[in-house]
Amino acid sequence: MRDDTLGVHAGRGGLGQAHVPPIDLSTTYKTPDLDAATQSIDHMAAGKNPSGGSIYQRLHNPTVARFEQALAALEGAEQAVSFASGMAAVTGALLAAKMVGSHIVAVRPLYGGTDHLLCSGLLGLDVSWATADTVAQHIGPDTSLVICETPANPTLQLVDIGAVVEQAQGVPVMVDSTFATPILQKPLEHGACLVLHSGTKFIGGHGDVMAGVIGCDGVWADRLRQVRILTGANLHPMAAYTLHRGLQTLGLRVRAAQDNAQRLSAWLQSHPSVARVRYPGAPGGDPLGLIGRQLKGPGSLVAVDLVGGYEAARSVMAAVQLITPAVSLGSCDTLIQHPAGLTHRIVGEAAKDASGIGPGLLRLSVGLEDVDDIWADLSMALQKALVRAA
Prior knowledge:
Layout: H1 3-9, H2 34-45, H3 62-75, E1 79-83, H4 86-98, E2 103-107, H5 112-120, E3 126-130, E4 143-149, H6 161-167, E5 173-176, H7 181-184, E6 194-198, E7 212-216, H8 218-231, H9 237-247, H10 250-269, E8 274-278, E9 301-306, H11 309-319, E10 324-325, E11 335-337, H12 349-355, E12 361-365, H13 371-389
Parallel strand pairs: 2-3, 2-4, 4-5, 5-6, 10-11
Antiparallel strand pairs: 1-7, 6-7, 8-9, 9-12, 11-12
Helix pairs in contact: 1-3, 3-9, 4-8, 11-13
């Protein structure tokens, strides 16, 4: 089945007469057969799915499992493991990797929270920072995971996943594909071992649910579930139901928002307040020719460097009326935020500079409003910034 069909139907088998998957909110389950329950506990303690009953919600939940089955189908993964947030998923992946080795290679730029976690020392990992073309130089005998993000947050820089996999020399590669979603990019098809999504973004799609999910093979899924059981970073069943429902419209939403972003990007190119447009579909935005080969399209995130720097960015954030000044992305409404001051505030100054995250950079998550209305609001705010700078 193709992606739009999978989005509607995956994870919906065995419903009986029900048309919509039920929400199972039970925190505990009856265990009248102690032998069967004990066997199920042993399965889940090893990271497997239950052999019998679910036993306890922290160990397994049917509603969560349905969402995971659907996401795995969309990504072409053997399995998927969900978490309470995107950062919980990142943490789970790092702890699972630590079962094999304590050295991580990370390619900047990454989401600010991921960058900060890797720099914090909290997980006792040895982290080497690389660019997409220097990964091979950092691989060692204790390297257990290579992490990259494409399109990258917040600069929309693209990474050739296959090239990174080749440089990793057999070390598993995890790709944060949040910006692309399974609709535009499938990292596992290009050799990655794990694909990470902040489900809070496009997969939920309405700014009202928080989640993380990783698609992978059975070996990694077992490790991730063990970490999830031990840390309690479970996805709530109501959130899983909302995410599963969101998959039904994911393709429609992603493509419609992308259409809007392409038009806005073209208009922004000629605006006097804009020094640079960062968008994979803009001139020079895809130097490796990945659109059509790795990506099905440029997506709906657009970043701009403003002529007036921080003051211009602050002015635009204050002036927009239709566009929402807020962090996050992938909602139905258009959002605008200042990465250096918000999502990447906790990233070191040198790392921000090296990644091109300057004081005049704004990131737009283009929504589903009429594009002419979005542009009217944005151009008004940009014009006010231009007047103030003069």
